[in-house]
Amino acid sequence: MTSANPLPILKSSHLLGIEGLSPEEVTALLDLADTYVDQSQAADKKTALLKGRTLINLFFEASTRTQSSFELAGKRLGADVMNMAVKNSSVAKGETLIDTASTLNAMRPDILVVRHENAGAAELLSRKLSCSVINAGDGAHEHPTQALLDALTIRRRLGGFENRIVAICGDIFHSRVARSNLRLLAMMGARVRLVAPRPLLPADADRFGVEVCTDMKTGLKDADIVMMLRLQLERMGGAFIPSSREYFRFYGLDREKLAYAKPGALVMHPGPMNRGVEISSDIADDVEVSLISEQVEMGVAARMAVLDALSRSIARKSDSRGHA
Questions:
Q1: What is the pTM of this model?
Q2: What is the pLDDT of residue 87?
Q3: Sign of torsion over alpha carbons 8, 157, 21, 273
Q4: For residue 5, is pLDDT > 90?
């Protein structure tokens, strides 16, 4: 449980990406998230930390895990939470993102969580709104809270990141999850590998300072964590893969390919899963190796930590105005 007058954790009043965070900020967020894991497992899961604060979830793209976990995180911290149904809003009638920002600003929210199909949308809103903005995924750019919950899951299972090998496998090209994860994990000392067929690797993959592999045997060798990614067929304008069946044959995670990794290696997936395309059901459902359900649980705790941290920034800004 946090103190009544907690010290700030983040330098910024927004969370737009992992890029820009320091290792110290990431560690502080993970330490705070650990306390919220304990709270979420207690009989009384609620606190009044965000009492009087308003949280708006603005999702231009459909999401089950991210939106519901932000809603639950906000409510467990005592915030008033509003989920905007974009398909029923003025956005569906042609309202621009700037006009939407102006409308939301007039409602005086304290925190806005936004998911948008265009990279940079969250950053644009952060410049137009007077509240804190959390990026819940913008195009193929970043998804910072997913990386935080994944890091929390890994740290709780393995104790840390130094010299751990994490293989991120699948549709790297379209994945904001991959971009946020490789930045965070590499920053914290892990060895990160990107594993995908050449068409699903970004042209500039080498610039990230991680290992790049185009076959699963090489990519999974000695891996402590195998993180599978969904094939984002809705973002593919061309023929990136011959067929789903062919893709699973070479890049889908099954028992044979998992054996390439370190004995006892653990498997992750941000969801939603395409079973039989990027991962077999017997691995996804095997509680001895799969951390997928644990990731969902850690998602609520990690987002509670982010909301807590940003509430400190809000309080700091209010205090500075009061003493101006």
A1: 0.93
A2: 65
A3: negative
A4: no
